């Protein structure tokens, strides 16, 4: 708790705790209740305890064009399999209303599949609009020592100094390092697959773009070059090239 | 106002206590009223290195707790009347130290002393954090070896963020690198990191290079800071370091292998000035 909090520790009624347990997304690809029941039963048979008690979010993205989904029945099927349907996401407005009526609230959790590996499309449904905020830039001129972490939220990050091994750079946008990059650089940490990393030498311990990463071990040496190296994501693979 | 110098490293066993003792003695030899404090509660050894282990009555923790005043706890050094030692407690542990307590003691020192050298324990926990919190200068002791360099780097990060000057946004602590246990022979063979290797990673001004020397062990056993052994290479290197700290410009000795006699006779090897 930060010292600037106005609630005294012993009077607080709650605290938020980060939970890293995964929540399963059930992405429906075809609306067919009988087939759904059969196929789910098969999946459960193969891994009996895997889904037992699992909180599940139903993703409607692939069946947005289907009218008249009976969400009560979908719920029943999932519960019968031991899952705990928690909510829905990615449906068109009509579907979302029907889902809420059936007791499945609208949930925004994680990223929908259209964003991964493809250009970000502006969403037209009632979900919170992901209009990208024009990133500002965070500029750092002090050396980043081992153990330090710099996070440029909703921004690009420029470091004009060395980054020691054991240091971490994180940015929602691009990362540019003009000194020696010997630590870790993670660009596009909120899922922006267009983010890139620019550096002069390949000494980084780990580079990552939108969660896809390469460790120093995996990075092949480049031939001697003048100029910058850029690291970007193509087809879910991290590519490294001389600019 | 006393200047507070913390001698720290992160890594253990690199030469912090040896350095604290020699730097404090060096400053006292120059006429400055100097105190050296052992912050390693529970594992004290500054008193051994300074040769006053038989005269310890009260210690740092006693003073913080008000069980003794500073004058009762300070031990006068037998070589130099300007030098005083405040030993650590051996029976308690580092939880006995408090931020306010340390602050008050340092403030009291400030009234009459010119320099206060804080001998930090190894690590980055409470003892080390308290030793560096009030510092104006930091001597980061590093061995030319990968783990030591990484730990020193971490320490530099902490010095620029977890100290009073950093928190109050004042001028940052002046950082000095002291490379210890340097062996030019092993560097030439490629077994040891060179001065430039270390400099590339840490990139802070170099205060001195202390060569690996049997004089250091002799000095610990005798209970006299190695700077008093004026014939030894380590002693001279520490004297140079103190001179540089006080602003003198000296070139670094002991960073190159001694050339064989015929080379010295026929060729002049340029001394590297860093």
Helix content of chain B: 40-55%
Elements of chain A, N to C (H/E):
EHEHEHEEEEEEEEEEE
- Looking across the biggest beta sheet of chain B, what order are the strands in? 3-4-2-5-1-6-7-8
Shape by Cα distribution of chain A: elongated
Structural class computed from helices and strand pairing of chain A: alpha/beta
Strand order of the largest sheet of chain A: 4-6-8-10-13-14
Number of strands of chain A: 14
Helix content, binned percent of chain A? 10-25%
Structural class from helices and strands of chain B?
alpha/beta
Could you list the spans of chain B in which at least 5 consecutive residues all have pLDDT below 50? 269-274
Coarse shape of chain B? globular
Oligomer: heterodimer
Mean pLDDT of chain A: 82
Tally of DSSP β-strands of chain B: 8
H/E element string of chain B?
A: EHEHHHEEHEHEHHEHHEHHH
Largest sheet of chain A: 6 strands, mixed
| Major sheet details of chain B | 8 strands, mixed
Give the rounded overall mean pLDDT of chain B.
92
Count of helical regions of chain B: 13
Most extensive contact: A-B, 14 and 11 residues
Strand percentage of chain A: 25-35%
